[in-house]
Amino acid sequence: MTSFPPALRVAIVGAGPAGIYAGNLLANAVLRRAQEPSGERHAHVEIDLFESLPAPYGLIRYGVAPDHPRIKGIVNSLHEMLDAFPREGAERRTIRFIGNVEIGRDLALDELRERYHAVILATGAIRDAALDIPGVDLPGSYGAADFVAWFDGHPDVARTWPLDASSVAVIGNGNVALDVARVLAKHAVDLRTTEVPDNVLAGLESSAVTDVHVFGRRGPADIKFTPIELRELGEVHDVDIVLYDEDFEGVDPAAAPNNQLKVMLRTLNSWRDRPAGTASRRLHLHFWHAPVEITGDGEVDGIVFERTRVERSETDAAGRLVGTGEFRDYDVQAVYRAVGYYGTRVAGAPFDEARGVVPNEGGRVDDEVGLYATGWIKRGPVGLIGHTKSDALETVTNLVADADAGLLAEPAVEEGDVLDLLEARETAYTTWDGWLALDAHERHLGETHTHARERVKVVPRDEQVAVSSQTLSRDGALVR
After folding, report:
1. Would the pTM count as exceeding 0.85?
2. Residue 245 placed within a domain
3. Sign (positive/negative) of CA torsion 132, 58, 176, 311?
């Protein structure tokens, strides 16, 4: 079997979970080979992890609601993966983080491919999937991804968000829909201890929301939530959960095909049994509603749904969703569309417009030797963090097999460092040590905040870059 090239050089585009898992798995795979008893020591691997944002972690930092305590554990795990291998100044670096660099803007994909044996695309999916109904573009109709980016302090979105609607609709039956609904319904005071940015906290404190309506096309037995997401919904302070008995006709938790769904159906039924509440805000869960039209004269003032049902047959046990011909109007002043995400394409890479993915087989990009994909850009925006890890394993396994088979071309540009190219273009890139400085600075801001907090996120991109270029004193204060 052919050994690795003397130093396998790999670029990974995207430093979210998919990219970090891929880098960690690849580094460990080569490390194991180096430790195998053989007549020849296996070569090491050099991995450059490119990220368009100044900080790592992707959707874990900018796509998940800040009140999820379990996210801290995921971030800690990703941090350990990036911090486990030699970096700047080491004789042989393994994983190097290069932030604030967008492929297609600061560097071309071809410029990467001529400097590395392989490139792995792990750009994920940050755009909202389309919802093709009349009125979807009215002011007051928002994509869930944009709202999530706002409340997570993404540097490239506006600092303010209009929260003057008292009644809002959230379309979707997945975890993102629940995140959006929970943040809209939750009182800002209950988010003060989280890492939510100060501008977001101020916006939520002035929110006029009293009623949040979540609509799903199918019934309670087809929800795409996870049990922990659903349970968190019922624990929100001063918010009543409102369910409608007509949506539960024929729904039997004991008949659910798995324990996870059984638990969620029992949770929903327990909420139905609660006495009428007196909370100042209400979160309504509606099922069997397909969106038909968002209405309004110049801005959203309502939404129309058609009631649905499932038609089953001997050949289709899951059933086909059909309309009943019954339409219902709801008076709302804002609509949030949480109907899925759409892949983030990389300029110069093949892209399937219909599916929103890079066309590939097992992570090998079609007709592009040395180009790979992993995560949502590989398989579409479905699955949880665990799926991302197993997905990365498949891609890395195939990359290693291609390296062993001698299929990866030697880099056409062997001299110089890609950082030299970035510096020549005056690109203000960030590094892992820069992230450690930014991380410590945000934690210091949290410690000294009026409300004790684990961190306060720095939002502006230029401020993140500036902090990342400085050092910190022992107490976390910035010094030149």
Report:
1. yes
2. no
3. positive
Locate 409 and state its tokens. Answer: 């071309």
**Domain end position, chosen among 297, 320, 340:** 340
Distance of CA 82 to the CA centre of its chain: 18
- Return the DSSP state at 434: H
Measure the CA–CA gap between 172 and 216, rounded to whole angstroms: 5
> How far is residue 55's CA from residue 59's CA, in Å, rounded to a whole number?
11
- Sign of the alpha-carbon dihedral angle for 63, 69, 70, 73: positive
Measured distance CA(50)–CA(22) in Å, rounded: 13
Closest CA to 207 of 153, 157, 151: 151
Helix (H, G, I), strand (E, B) or coil at 229: helix
Cβ atoms of 182 and 336 within 8 Å: the answer is no
Q: Which pLDDT tens digit goes with each residue over 347-386? A: 999 999 999 999 999 999 999 999 999 999 999 887 777 7
Same domain, 25 and 82: yes
- State the Cα–Cα distance between residues 86 and 236, nearest whole angstrom: 43
Name which of 247, 335, 327 is nearest 288 in CA terms: 247
Q: In terms of domains, do 71 and 193 share one?
A: no
Which are the contacts of 202, defined by CB distance < 8 A and separation ≥ 6?
none
Look up residue 118 and give its two tokens. 């392989």
Same domain assignment for residues 47 and 167: no
Q: Domain residues for 456?
A: 432-480
123 neighbors 344 (Cβ within 8 angstroms): yes
| Helices vs. strands in the chain: H and E counts, helices first | 14, 21
396-451: per-residue pLDDT in tens? 999 999 998 889 999 998 788 999 999 999 999 999 999 999 999 999 998 888 87
Check whether residue 171 and residue 100 sit in a common domain: no
Q: How far apart are the first and last CA of the chain?
A: 52
Helix, strand, or coil here: 370? Answer: coil
Residue 254 lies in a domain: no
Query: For residue range 52-99, what is the model confidence (pLDDT) as tens digits?
Result: 999 999 988 998 888 876 666 778 888 888 887 655 544 556 899 999
CA pair distance 20, 469, nearest whole angstrom: 22
What is the rounded CA–CA span in Å between residue 135 and residue 297?
10
